[in-house]
UniProtKB/TrEMBL annotation:
<feature type="region of interest" description="Disordered">
    <location>
        <begin position="1"/>
        <end position="35"/>
    </location>
</feature>
<dbReference type="InterPro" id="IPR038810">
    <property type="entry name" value="CNTLN"/>
</dbReference>
<dbReference type="GO" id="GO:0005813">
    <property type="term" value="C:centrosome"/>
</dbReference>
<protein>
    <submittedName>
        <fullName>CNTLN protein</fullName>
    </submittedName>
</protein>
<dbReference type="GO" id="GO:0005814">
    <property type="term" value="C:centriole"/>
</dbReference>
<feature type="compositionally biased region" description="Basic and acidic residues">
    <location>
        <begin position="1"/>
        <end position="17"/>
    </location>
</feature>
<dbReference type="GO" id="GO:0010457">
    <property type="term" value="P:centriole-centriole cohesion"/>
</dbReference>
Length: 350
């Protein structure tokens, strides 16, 4: 019966909606979807009527149970009234949804544009995600390294803890032995005090000698660092002087070659061959000089980096002799090459 009442209510609602649509429109034309739903609802009504006829026979036998369940039916009727209220609310919601559908159809164009912009943003976000994934992988690798180091430190900690426990056991044993030996120590205190006094004098003298040796060693280290710094500065200064001499020798050779071979007519002839003016030819030569100055700046920066590297080696922990030797040998080889280049240039100029 409840299903039948619901279906009848739905049919009444559909008929009311179709009547309202017929009144609002000039030419009444119900939609195909509403007709199909009406037919489905009518079919359901027929089926429910058939089921009601079938169940009428069973209802006669269940009259006794109906009397017991009347109270429950009253409660259900209250629920039905609530459901009717919900139906009314749903009708209003359907009308609101229809108006919203029209508004959504109008806003579909704008939503498509926003979708395109969002797709672009999604692509950009995907690229950012890929970059973040790479950074996360690198962080994971660092974390693995840190965990390995942590496990190593934990092993060292456990080893140290075991050693401490063993030493504690030894200390307890030694304390017991010390208690046993206290009675014997009382007899030897006088002799031991004299011996300790002598040993204190000897240890004081030994400490003074050690302190003097430490001061001498510190002075030697300072002298060694000053020697290394002075040596590196002298090397860098000599390399710079060789570079300047090489540049001057090159310029002298170019000037001699120009004074021997070039003249104003030859400059004009070179400009005509290159299909440029004499001013452009001079600019080309100035560009070469600019390249040489840029090269000199790069070499100067390399020298500064080399001096900083040696400073870091001197300030670093031991051992650093091999690295210092490699750096000095590198600069000496550079000086050797520059000397060979300078001698070859001087021979050609002579």
């Amino acid at each position: 019966q409840q299903e039948k009442e619901d279906l009848e209510g739905k049919l009444k609602l559909r008929e009311h909606l179709s009547q309202n649509a017929g009144k609002s429109e000039a030419t009444p034309a119900p939609s195909k979807n509403i007709d199909s739903e009406m037919k489905q609802l009518q079919c359901k009504l027929k089926n429910s009527n058939n089921e009601i006829t079938k169940q009428s026979t069973t209802i006669k036998s269940l009259k006794t149970e109906v009397q017991e369940k009347e109270e429950r039916i009253r409660e259900l009727q209250a629920k039905i009234s609530r459901l009717e209220r919900d139906l009314n609310m749903k009708r209003h919601l359907i009308e609101d949804l229809r108006s919203r559908v029209k508004a959504n159809q109008e806003n579909e164009k704008t939503s498509n544009e926003t979708l395109e912009s969002l797709e672009r943003k999604v692509k950009a976000l995907a690229e950012d995600c890929s970059n973040k994934k790479t950074s996360i992988d690198s962080l994971k690798q660092r974390l693995n390294v840190a965990t390995k180091e942590k496990s190593q430190y934990e092993q060292m900690y456990h080893k140290a803890k075991d050693e401490l426990e063993q030493k504690d056991l030894r200390l307890t044993n030694l304390e017991s032995k010390m208690i046993e030996a206290e009675c014997a120590m009382t007899e030897l205190e006088t002799a031991a005090s004299q011996q300790l006094h002598d040993l204190a004098k000897q240890s004081g003298q030994a400490l003074e000698t050690v302190q003097e040796k430490l001061l001498v060693a510190n002075d030697k280290v300072k002298e060694f660092t000053t020697f290394v710094k002075a040596l590196t500065r002298e090397l860098q200064h000599s390399v710079q002087e060789l570079r300047t001499k090489i540049k001057q020798a090159k310029k002298m050779g170019e000037l001699r070659a120009c004074t021997k071979s070039l003249s104003q007519e030859s400059v004009q002839l070179a400009a005509s061959i290159l299909n440029v003016s004499t001013a452009d030819l001079e600019e080309i030569l100035e560009v070469e000089e600019d390249e040489e100055t840029a090269k000199a700046r790069k070499e100067f920066e390399k020298d500064k980096e080399w001096l900083l590297y040696i400073q870091k080696l001197l300030e670093a922990q031991f051992p650093f002799a091999s690295y210092l030797m490699d750096a000095v040998l590198e600069k000496l080889n550079e000086k050797k090459k520059l000397v060979e280049e300078y001698t070859s240039l001087m021979k050609h100029t002579v």
